[in-house]
Amino acid sequence: MSHPARITIPVAGSANLGLAARMVVLLGLAAFIPSLGLPQQITGPLVNALLFLSVGSVGASNAILVGGVPSMVGIAQGTLPLQLVAMVPYIVAGNALLVVTFALLRRWGFAPAALAAAVFKFALLYCAVTYVVRLPQPVATMMQLPQLYTALAGAAIAFAAERGSIRVRALLRARLNW
Q1: Mind listing the pLDDT tens digit for each residue in 123-132?
Q2: 147 vs 89: CA distance, rounded Å
Q3: Alpha-carbon distance 114 to 107, whole Å?
Q4: Residue of 114, 68, 66 lying closest to 91 (CA atoms)
Q5: 155 assigned to some structural domain
Q6: What's the predicted TM-score (pTM) here?
Q7: Residue 81 φ/ψ, nearest 5 degrees
């Protein structure tokens, strides 16, 4: 007697729901930050901090997805200068390089991994604007040294947020037996 074929329906576990919830929050923040229309000196560090934090929260592959959102939102809302549209593939690639470098080197510690990630992102954008994409000088300058500064500032913000989160969790466990 043959048995009917079994159909297995995957049920989302709490781990999958947690990952999905974190992705929704991170993608929402990645869209929200550039939509504020703040200057590069503020938006850049916030986006970079989000990328560093995303690596620990949702993993490198998902953090790469998060890194693609800010430029797309900037184009859609007109907050990204029109001259920088040609740089978007390089900006997204720079964000991906930051994420992957940080994820691969994290075992060496936060600071060395973040420093290497920031330098690699800066180098990619610097080379793109210097050798590949021709931009007016004031716009080209935005894609050079300021990118290193905003990546390093983002690393500092992420480091502080990560350390603060650890302290809050420890306090909650100690006080509430959580």
Answers
A1: 999 999 999 9
A2: 15
A3: 11
A4: 68
A5: yes
A6: 0.85
A7: -55, 135
